[in-house]
């Protein structure tokens, strides 16, 4: 794939919140880490797609600091190599995310060619995708900043549009005449009828050095802040932590607004590969296989006299009668009911939940941690019950609580328990009591997952009542 330049460096942007796919997608477990379409998460599918590219470095990931252990675990599950996991201490949009990736890539390879892809897209034709990236690389190595346009098949209002020049620069690479923000329906219909417009995929291909030059020219405050953030970076386990102060001072702007809409180097390559941004429940329904009545069902679902619906049950039986063109998604702590036509407006509901400070906007009942997960079973004012799973070889932090005591009952595996000065083992059907204020730790030295039931009692049961005394994960 090399033509007068460095190797291809794929960059996965994985900082999005995926609010339109609530209640499955939450702030601390957004859609890119969910298995929405197939057995793998969208992030894992993206990694596998990029690993199919010829002569490319392992992908580099830019993600939210809160998601770091989820990213590392999903990469471990794939057995995939990676070029780095860069942690954003604060979200500053895609212009900054690409800039720190470019700076990191240039340290390894001054001539690196960046392929920037979101972590949460679905692409049906991986061989065609790889072929298209390969054929477009020559133009990128010549100094063009390439974006990829999706040939539209409907007047969609959820995407931005790219107007391509009528004559190609070379092959099927076209100069970009202008970008169009997400239009209303009449405008989208007019764009489709006029021809030459493509959906903006959010996928880019360019030299890292050229992008940084153009960023310095058109958004120097972003370029300066990102250089400071990179110069102050430090290694932490498998992660690269960017300087927080520099990132907090960085303007938040998309790569389109900061560079692509201003530069003279912007070009577009058509990308017809079965692409979907999975930006709403309707979009997910469209790429799923429906039954004879047009319904897509996932999980324990029964229905009668129901047509053209997306019905998803995560935990309980979902039964539908007499529905038309609806989205129904059941999770243990929330149920969404929406018309397919209004599915993209779910984001407004999430904003309401955030304003109300509802936990349902942030976390699921099952919460993943670097050592495994815990899942809420039931709760009241002075008690709550959790199911805890600790991976083989993993351990929780040494910690204490000011307001709650804990009772642990082992249901599977063997636990090594530290409680103040005592260290002992518990096997299946054995239990122990951790008093308020006691320093305690739970470890799994076995070869199978450790599962236990935890009963918490006390005047305050919030997750912020944790004083970490030691933690192998650096939290």
Unreliable segments of 5+ consecutive residues: none
Helix count, per DSSP?
Answer: 11
- Name the overall outline: globular
Q: Compute the average pLDDT.
A: 93
Task: Specify Rg, calculated over alpha carbons.
Answer: 24 Å
Strand content: 25-35%
Structural class: alpha/beta
Q: Between the first and last Cα atoms, what is the distance in angstroms?
A: 41 Å
The largest β sheet comes out as: 6 strands, antiparallel
Strand order, main sheet: write it out. Answer: 20-21-22-29-24-27
Question: In percent, how helical is the residue content?
Answer: 10-25%
Task: List how many beta strands DSSP finds.
Answer: 30
Report on this model:
The protein is an alpha/beta fold. 24% of the residues lie in helices and 34% in strands. The protein has 11 helices and 30 strands. It is globular and about 75 Å long. The two termini are 41 Å apart. The mean pLDDT is 93.
Summarize this structure briefly:
This protein has 475 residues and is an alpha/beta fold. It has eleven helices and 30 strands.
């Amino acid at each position: 794939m090399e033509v007068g330049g460095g190797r291809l460096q794929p960059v996965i942007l994985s900082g999005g919140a995926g609010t339109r796919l609530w209640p499955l997608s939450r702030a601390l477990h957004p859609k890119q880490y969910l298995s929405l379409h197939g057995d793998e998460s969208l992030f894992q599918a993206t990694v596998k797609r990029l690993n199919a590219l010829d002569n490319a470095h392992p992908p580099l990931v830019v993600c939210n600091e809160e998601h770091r252990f989820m990213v590392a675990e999903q990469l471990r599950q794939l057995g995939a190599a990676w070029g780095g996991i860069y942690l954003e201490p604060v979200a500053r949009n895609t212009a900054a995310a690409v800039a720190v990736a470019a700076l990191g890539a240039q340290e390894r390879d001054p001539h690196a060619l960046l392929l920037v892809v979101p972590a949460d897209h679905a692409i049906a034709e991986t061989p065609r995708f790889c072929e298209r990236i390969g054929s477009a690389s020559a133009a990128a190595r010549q100094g063009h900043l390439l974006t990829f346009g999706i040939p539209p098949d409907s007047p969609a209002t959820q995407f931005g549009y790219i107007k391509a020049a009528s004559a190609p620069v070379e092959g099927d690479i076209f100069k970009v005449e202008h970008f169009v923000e997400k239009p209303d329906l009449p405008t989208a219909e007019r764009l489709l009828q006029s021809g030459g417009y493509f959906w903006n995929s959010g996928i880019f291909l360019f030299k890292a050095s050229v992008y940084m030059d153009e960023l310095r020219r058109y958004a120097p405050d972003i370029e300066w802040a990102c250089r400071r953030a990179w110069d102050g970076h430090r290694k932490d386990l498998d992660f690269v932590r960017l300087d927080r102060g520099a990132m907090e001072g960085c303007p938040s702007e998309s790569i389109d607004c900061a560079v692509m809409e201003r530069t003279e180097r912007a070009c577009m390559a058509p990308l017809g590969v079965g692409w979907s941004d999975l930006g709403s429940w309707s979009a997910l329904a469209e790429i799923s296989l429906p039954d004879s009545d047009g319904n897509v069902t996932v999980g324990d679902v029964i229905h009668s006299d129901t047509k053209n619906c997306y019905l998803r049950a995560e935990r309980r039986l979902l039964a539908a009668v007499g529905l038309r063109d609806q989205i129904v998604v059941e999770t243990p702590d929330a149920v969404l009911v929406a018309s397919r036509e209004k599915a993209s407006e779910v984001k407004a509901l999430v904003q309401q939940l955030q304003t109300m400070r509802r936990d349902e906007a942030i976390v699921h009942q099952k919460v993943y941690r670097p050592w495994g997960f815990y899942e809420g079973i039931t709760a009241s004012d002075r008690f709550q019950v959790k199911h805890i799973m600790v991976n083989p070889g993993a351990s929780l932090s040494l910690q204490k609580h000011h307001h709650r005591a804990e009772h642990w009952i082992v249901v599977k595996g063997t636990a090594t328990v530290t409680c103040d000065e005592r260290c002992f083992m518990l096997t299946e059907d054995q239990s122990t009591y951790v008093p308020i204020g006691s320093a305690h730790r739970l470890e799994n030295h076995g070869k199978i997952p450790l599962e236990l039931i935890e009963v918490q009692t006390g005047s305050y049961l919030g997750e912020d009542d944790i004083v970490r005394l030691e933690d192998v994960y650096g939290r």
